Amino acid sequence: MESRLNEFSSAESYGNSPYGEQPSVNPHSRIGNVQREEAKERLHAYARDGYISYEELIDGLVNAETAVTANEIDSLFAGLPAETTQSLNANAARESTLQSEAVLRVHIIETVSSLVWPASVLLWALWDLAFKLPYAWILFVLAGIISIITQIMLWSTNSQDKLATEASSEKKNEIEERVRIEIERKRSERY
User: Fold this and answer.
1) I need a surface site. Which of 9, 73, 164, 180 has the fewest CB within 10 A?
2) Average pLDDT of 145-165?
3) Burial group, residue 95, by CB count within 10 angstroms (0-12, 13-18, 19+)
4) 84/106 Cα distance (integer angstroms)
């Protein structure tokens, strides 16, 4: 027992992990759900970065889900670079930026749409009543056109977001279903 404690407390037992400095784990020690989930996240990152194919992703997810030891998890990443953790951070930052840009775009379109009619009435009042210029009614036609365009842009933005979310969800469901089937097949082979 004492030698095992010394193994984990020694400075040599700290290795380079993509998740920071962590104690080394005996390759034959059992792992839990946290390690399996981390492995699956890393596999998704490698697939996003093009290091592994779709089929390799499915196989890796199945193996990660059914892994029992740290050695089985480590074997999933043999030959793959460790830089993907940086990719995870970059992808999260990029996704956050895209999401905030989409929210900003919708906010701008809604603001323009809500200000079109009040602005046209104000301009009409200045144009027609104050300066007695002809053809003030053109402002209302232009306001209508701008209002229609902003509503179409708003509808288009919402539709694109909805389609992207549905596509992502369908792909995720497809992957999860294939992983579930492969896990059941693998478990039935064991018994």
Assistant:
1) 9
2) 81
3) exposed
4) 32
The pLDDT value recorded for residue 92 is 67
Q: What is the DSSP string of the chain?
A: -HHHHHHHHSGGGEEEETTEEEE---TTSB--HHHHHHHHHHHHHHHHTTSS-HHHHHHHHHHHHH--BHHHHHHHTTT--TTHHHHHHHHHHHHHHHHHHHHHHHHHHHHHHHHHHHHHHHHHIIIIIIT--S-TTHHHHHHHHHHHHHHHHHHHHHHHHHHHHHHHHHHHHHHHHHHHHHHHHHHHHH-
Q: Tokens 């005996």 belong to which residue?
A: 26
Amino acid, single-letter form, for residue 49: D
Helices 33-48 and 84-124, axial angle in degrees (round to 10) = 70
Give residue 83's pLDDT: 64
The residue-averaged pLDDT of 34-59 equals 87
Question: Which three-class secondary structure string do you get for 2-33?
Answer: HHHHHHHHCHHHEEEECCEEEECCCCCCECCH
The domain spans of the chain are 14-76, 97-190
Q: Could you tell me the pLDDT band of residue 85, with boundaries at 50, 70 and 90?
A: low
Which residue in the block uniquely carries the two structure tokens 């194919």? 53
Burial of 76 per CB tally in 10 Å (0-12, 13-18, 19+)? buried
Measured distance CA(167)–CA(159) in Å, rounded: 12
